[in-house]
Amino acid sequence: RRGGSDRSPQAGMAAEDEAELSLLECRVCFEPYGPDGQRRPLNLPCGHVLCRGCVGALAGAESRRLECPFCRRPCGLAETSDCRPLLQLLELLGPGGGGLASALGRSGGGAAAPAPAGLGLRLCLGGWGSLVNPTGVAACPGSGRLAVAHDGKKRIHVFGPSGFCLRRFGERGDAGNDIKYPLDVTVTSDGHVVVTDGGDCSVKAFDFEGRGVLAVREGFSLPWGLDATPKSEVILTDSEAGALYRLTADFQRGELKKCQMIRSRLVSPRAVAVCQTSGAVVVIEHLKARGPSKDSTRVKVFSAEMDLIGQMDSFGLNLVFPSRIYATAVAFDREGRVVVTDVCSQAVICLGKPEEFPIFNPLISHGLSYPVGLTYMANDSLVVLDSGDHSIKVYSS
């Protein structure tokens, strides 16, 4: 059953958000999107969508590079691409734009083809009108609930195991517990939702009722990815500082105990995951291009004592896979194997255990548009956050 297909109070709230978010308008110039010309919607590499006219204006006549106006990620004009889900929606609505409510009402996240290797799509949540440019997803170890960070009016959505949206919180705004721009989210074993906020370079924690319990604003340059350990500690990356931190707190009391840098001299680290059995930590570094070559990524795995035990960059992956790989999210499976999302092949790939690199095993190779988030649930279901069609896809064997 799709989470977006049930007529419920949550569906009514989503319908209200559809009108507020103006999904068919560029959020820079507020002009309606169109299928051609300057109004054609384009994806930036970060997942945000702008019209072609605004992309050109932000890039300028000579530089041909721009910064995303929402998350400030730099990119080149050649890295933009057509926003296919929005173009398909425009085609569905036709020249008059009729049927918007019914079209968005079917947005349970479009159907995806079954995955190979015994994995099949079990549940699809979100979609247009429910999630907007989602950036992070995490599973609660005990309850099976999923927390998703996105760019909507309320930044955090919590879904139950059956797909219902149970709660939405984290207002968009400038107040102390508001969230300016969420980059990633995790859920601790004691049931707290922790978010990295790129807007004010902070880390914020909430309980599952949406009450803010802690905000850490000092000491970070740009906190990005984060994941929780079995002891409810939080491992997080600072992309600009090139560092990895361990944050220890009493979330029940809202007290920060310690924030310790545990690794430095990393290159733009973003996504991070902690192995729940061994304590190993995997990080994705984003490497700047030299000369005409494109940017690439590197996967680094550290032991629980933060010793480097394995690494693999895009060049090495290309030796075992015939196309360029750009990893955006990472997780450990139950056996301690490293699993990454690749936006170039629109796939989820298992790289094996660190001592086995380079193993290449595609887990999902169909039905994804722009996968940016990855996590495993307690029942071993694989959860993929697809920013391309603003959905959460749950796969199981």
UniProtKB/TrEMBL annotation:
InterPro entries: 6-blade_b-propeller_TolB-like (IPR011042), NHL_repeat (IPR001258), TRIM-NHL_E3_ligases (IPR050952), Znf_RING (IPR001841), Znf_RING/FYVE/PHD (IPR013083), Znf_RING_CS (IPR017907). GO terms for biological process: proteasome-mediated ubiquitin-dependent protein catabolic process; protein polyubiquitination. Gene3D superfamilies: TolB, C-terminal domain, Zinc/RING finger domain, C3HC4 (zinc finger). SMART domains: RING. Its EC number is 2.3.2.27. Residues 26-72 form the RING-type domain. It catalyses: S-ubiquitinyl-[E2 ubiquitin-conjugating enzyme]-L-cysteine + [acceptor protein]-L-lysine = [E2 ubiquitin-conjugating enzyme]-L-cysteine + N(6)-ubiquitinyl-[acceptor protein]-L-lysine. Keywords: Ligase, Metal-binding, Repeat, Zinc, Zinc-finger. PROSITE patterns: NHL (PS51125), ZF_RING_1 (PS00518), ZF_RING_2 (PS50089). GO terms for cellular component: nucleus. It is an enzyme of class 2 (transferase). NHL repeats lie at residues 126-162, 166-209. SUPFAM superfamilies: NHL repeat, RING/U-box. GO terms for molecular function: ligase activity; ubiquitin protein ligase activity; zinc ion binding. This is RING-type E3 ubiquitin transferase. It comes from Struthidea cinerea.
